[in-house]
Amino acid sequence: MLHKTEGIVLSTLRYSDRYAITHVYTADFGATSYLLPITSSKKAKIKNSLFFPFSLLRMEVEHLPKRDIQKLKEVERLLPLYEICTDMSKLSLTFFLSEFLYRVLRESDNNEITFQYIKNSVETLEAANKGIGNFHIAFMIGLTRFMGIYPNWENTESDRYFDMLNGEFKHNIPSHTHFLKQDESGYIKYLNRINYYNMHKFKLSRDNRNIIINYLLEYYRLHLYDFPKLKSLEVLREMN
Fold first, then answer.
1. Contacts of 199 (CB under 8 A, 6+ apart)
2. Could you read off the pLDDT of 47-63 as tens digits, one per residue?
3. Is 10:31 a contact under the CB 8 Å cutoff?
4. Strands, E, within 124-181: which ranges?
5. pTM for this one?
6. Looking at the DSSP assignment, which residues form a beta bridge with residue 103?
7. What is the distance between the alpha carbons of residues 174 and 63, in angstroms, rounded to a whole number?
8. 62-89, pLDDT tens digit by residue?
9. Which domains occur in the chain, in start order?
């Protein structure tokens, strides 16, 4: 059965001499794998160049519930991403966040709100001209709302330790080892208001950002099943 939907490309991997597998987060079906014919022909119905990480696509697909790899029928670009494809800082953020999303997003029945958040984020990154270095931090913190793991920021003034397992600040040291010390917890308290509109106001060094990303990745790893190390992380550390 054919469906029309929108999608955000997360990754594309070569499968054989004739085909690649592209992983797309769709508004209607969540994280989905599609069979992508490999061709350089200008007459090809589906252009391989459309399947760059974070590409926003309008798609007509054949979707069968029990099939692992779905089929593409027609694909067109929703929005040209000139900045993301040419600016090295934005490019490194794109590769990191697309790999991150590929690992954390799952197929589900309710995807529209999450999809809109990611789509708006891609559009924001394309248009942004300041505060780019903090974009991934704002993105990852914002995404926790849609993953059901948003931290409890209440009563943070007197509470000194961030309990990563329970996602909240506590006055006393938790009984387990998954918590941040007082100085480490200060980073998280500092970021509770960060968003795309004010991210340029957060003055963070490269070392600060790397530490914060480590905390955020650990937080996701504690709350999501089977979340591995990200290969693109080291490139991001050098670029931002």
1. 131, 134, 135, 137, 138
2. 888 999 999 999 999 99
3. yes
4. 161-163, 168-170, 179-180
5. 0.92
6. none
7. 47
8. 998 889 999 999 999 999 999 999 999 9
9. 2-77 (2.40.50.140), 82-151+192-239 (1.20.1440)
